[in-house]
């Protein structure tokens, strides 16, 4: 992540441009890792920085602090922030608690928990986050995922019939969120749909959440829901954004696409309805349930954010990823059937409203 120029430079800019928020202040770095953000806080003029890191990376952070002669400013504490015992309250909390689809790895919970050390009126960097969701149409990624399970349709594998495991294998592949770069286009952010999260006020961010989807769309095939997120650093002097949008420069978070079990065909005049629900699990991640339906058809998908499918280098264009268009080409082939559906472009998206 240190090699992610957009992420690293944005954090540094947010702190240095808001020098007044850090000058002679006490700062808490949650999940400090190598201590990079702690160094930025020191560069911005912090009097004291407590870098809390629960893993053995704390030893690396200490080595960097010592090697850069900042032991008088940065103190590394090897513990979870929930177990930390700071000698004083802090003026600013900094952290990089973000995972794919914003919430994966569940670091946001630790970040919010750290507010118990924050002075009244203190700052949090980042300050708020926004998760964006919209439906997409992409026959290629849908077929590619289905074809991964074709091996389990083998009836003669050294005398063994593997087909009893085909359904389970297909479900496993479809449950993997596709993490990849989706190209930008003017059609995307014109219709962005969002769920906002204030990190300064939320008590249990995304422990369990449910959102509904409803819109009128042009005819076409929908294969799932795409997602990205934005963050805002609200300093006294400047507000600095960090975006993982297809429009923004690429980050190591890329964008995420969650697949339905079966594609949903939208007919002329149809209203598209659906939902997205997320629930924490014991693997420091989330189980995601998506569902889409029209007047004649419905489909759903169960996604495990802990097991992503990294499709790096397989560039997907937004016209396939986000609009639902009328001239869409979809081919679904197995041993018994083929289906062709015309594919095209349209700028209509789903209107997403949070419940």
From TrEMBL:
Alphabetized Pfam families for the sequence: Methyltransf_25, PRMT_C
Coiled coil regions in record: none
SUPFAM superfamilies recorded: S-adenosyl-L-methionine-dependent methyltransferases (SSF53335)
Reactions catalysed according to its record: L-arginyl-[protein] + 2 S-adenosyl-L-methionine = N(omega),N(omega)-dimethyl-L-arginyl-[protein] + 2 S-adenosyl-L-homocysteine + 2 H(+)
Molecular functions (GO terms): histone H3R2 methyltransferase activity; protein-arginine omega-N asymmetric methyltransferase activity
InterPro entries attached to this UniProt entry: Arg_MeTrfase, Methyltransf_25, PRMT_dom, SAM-dependent_MTases_sf
Keyword terms: Chromatin regulator, Cytoplasm, Methyltransferase, Nucleus, S-adenosyl-L-methionine, Transcription, Transcription regulation, Transferase
Principal subcellular localization: cytoplasm
EC numbers: 2.1.1.319
Domain Protein arginine N-methyltransferase: 129-290
Domain (Methyltransferase): residue spans on this chain: 27-122
Taxonomy, superkingdom: Eukaryota
CDD domains recorded: AdoMet_MTases (cd02440)
Region (Disordered): 329-355
GO CC, any one term: cytoplasm
Localisation per UniProt entry: Cytoplasm; Nucleus
Keyword Lipid biosynthesis: no
An annotated GO BP: methylation
Protein name as catalogued: type I protein arginine methyltransferase
Organism of derivation: Salpingoeca rosetta (strain ATCC 50818 / BSB-021)
